[in-house]
Amino acid sequence: MGIQRLFIANRGEIAVRIIRAAKELGITTIQAYSEGDTDMLAVKLADEAVCLGPARATESYLNIKGVVAAAIENRADAVHPGYGFLSESPEFARAIENAGITFVGPSADTIERMGDKVAARQAAEAAGVPVVPGSKGRIESVDEAVEVAATVGYPVMVKAAAGGGGKGIRIAENEEELRSLAPQAQQEAAAAFGDGGLYIERSVKSPRHIEVQIVGDGEKAVHFYERECSLQRRRQKVWEEAGADCLDNATRETLCMAAVALAEAVNYRGAGTLEYLYDESTKEFFFIEMNTRIQVEHPVTEMVTGFDLVQEMIRVCGNEPLSVSQDQVKKSGHSIEVRLNAEDPFMQFMPWPGKVESLKIPEGEGIRFDHFMYEGYQIPPFYDSLIGKLIVHGKDRADAISKMAVALEGLEINGLKTTVPLHKALAADPGVASGDFHTQWLEPWLEAGNLKPENT
Amino acid sequence: MAQVLSPLPGTFYIKPSPEEEAYKKSGDVVAVGDTIGLIEVMKTFIEVKSEIAGTFTGYVAEDSLPVTASQPLAEVAS
């Protein structure tokens, strides 16, 4: 094992998760923290700790120079960036590489390439991963638009080639609609941008969010199957599952192997996730982006495959080959994770950074709780509101949902408002049980008043 | 002299954005419900509104620094 002293450039539950993984690998842990996080659990659990600066993230966790200097000063031979903060900053990864320290993630060049929408789309297409079909270049006439739409497939989204934002965007269900909408879109684009050129792409309606977990060692890559994260509020995932029961085996296989092809094509090292939109009606999937880090929802994949993804990413970034081949990755049962936020779900999800007065954690087979709380802990107001993740593993999806309902009943966090009531209502909801939902499902469900105190 | 207190712990800002002027300056008239600052709590911005009417005297908490719940942020002469 190359890595001996791992510097953790993150906070909260993921810092705790990384420390536990590193300790099991016999690695010394050095926890970075801000002045707003002196009491956090990861500081207590780590072998060593170093203060980065003021509570404000731009002066501590996001300060590239400061974090790199602290890693050097504390003789770290590797840095784990967690998720968020600097985890997908090519500048940070490059600064760490230049200091002769191992970055637990892909190379700065790979982060840069996959972080650029156009470059990532090109890399995906080159590796045979489907992207949302669209026009190759700008479209000048209505006839040309109709011609392109016939190959792209309806419904299509028509938008201005110049500029961004929502100006000039229209959705046409068929050729007739396109013939009447395209001239309007052209006029609007010309008025807004002085350029009537259009761009056409397939409109994926009410898509599901499916993502594939991969780990690569810089040469070979394996997938750990897929997750479904369609229950979202304000583009934030709320409830995540492994696997995605809406997929048939052939589609799942294609989706996962496409992810491996892309990871190997870019010589991917570390843990990564390919995110796709999935159109259930046509069984088509389209690559949207790649996240070049460990993700919040990685535990559901660990539950169904039995692998420790954080340990695996540390090992491969320490120059070891993958410890597993594709045929050794099997999945069993179904797993669900819910994100617990310090927010009041009955008050427009207003943040609630209180003090943990008492804490009762559910236990039992197939129940896992990743968090960073202890009794008497004051949740700091300076960072995001995620306080923990409750994860269950059942023999199938229905079993996992009922396990989640029981686990939520056994969880008590006093002193704070949390999103536990939302999850209790979701676990009891027939729409969730049927699995018939998509990324546009949860917000209307909330607006319709489905979250009531008596449902929880 | 009355004080406007922070409703929540977080980071206090006296301006709507870094490029703009402070919400209030000394001598400004303050009506009930006027916004005097922002609290950033868990990546959400919440407006701090005055519950007092009078004349703005000044900020007593510093811009862009952490504050605790119920900490005095500004003073209003009523």
Automatic annotation (TrEMBL), chain B:
Cross-referenced Pfam families: Biotin_lipoyl
Domain Lipoyl-binding as annotated: residue spans: 3-75
Presence of keyword rRNA processing: no
Superkingdom assignment: Bacteria
Record keywords, A-Z: Biotin, Fatty acid biosynthesis, Fatty acid metabolism, Lipid biosynthesis, Lipid metabolism
CDD domains xrefs: biotinyl_domain (cd06850)
GO molecular function, one term: acetyl-CoA carboxylase activity
GO biological process: fatty acid biosynthetic process
The keyword Transmembrane helix is assigned to this record: no
GO CC, alphabetical: acetyl-CoA carboxylase complex
Pathways involved: Lipid metabolism; fatty acid biosynthesis
Function: This protein is a component of the acetyl coenzyme A carboxylase complex; first, biotin carboxylase catalyzes the carboxylation of the carrier protein and then the transcarboxylase transfers the carboxyl group to form malonyl-CoA.
NCBIfam families: PRK07051.1
Name the record gives this protein: Biotin carboxyl carrier protein of acetyl-CoA carboxylase
Species for this entry: Cohaesibacter gelatinilyticus
